[in-house]
Design goal:
about 20% strand, 5 helices, alpha/beta, 5-stranded parallel β-sheet
């Protein structure tokens, strides 16, 4: 039996973060860390026995936002795939985040099916 893909989430909206966690776990992923900002997520990651395979991050969060988190993750954990999940989905923001190290950019306006399909493609 194949182990589920492990995921970390950085999202500042509590209810949205919880729905995201439940949806991902129900879709066969395994959420191993979940935080309201990048700083708290990085603190959680150092305590894990094994870092997650994938990180989903919002862009606009307090303390340490996605713009800062993505390059920090890539430097510290270069093998982690990063999906930026945000309402700020214009072309220039998407290109900037890819330059900073994001593997994909998913708009929060996209369907759940599209979101899950993109994550499946990152396995």
């Amino acid at each position: 039996m194949q182990r589920p893909v492990t995921i970390a989430i950085a999202e500042d909206h509590d209810k949205f973060r919880e729905v995201l966690r439940l949806s991902l776990n129900n879709a066969g992923f395994h959420v191993v860390a979940s935080a309201p900002n990048g700083r708290d997520l990085l603190q959680q990651l150092v305590h894990l026995a094994e870092p997650p395979q994938l990180c989903i991050t919002d862009l606009h969060m307090p303390l340490l936002d996605g713009y800062e988190l993505v390059p920090l993750l890539k430097r510290t954990y270069p093998f982690i795939r990063i999906a930026v999940y945000s309402t700020s989905d214009d072309y220039y923001t998407q290109q900037e985040m890819k330059q900073r190290g994001a593997d994909v950019f998913i708009s929060k306006a996209d369907t759940v099916e599209h979101f899950l399909a993109v994550l499946q493609s990152l396995k």
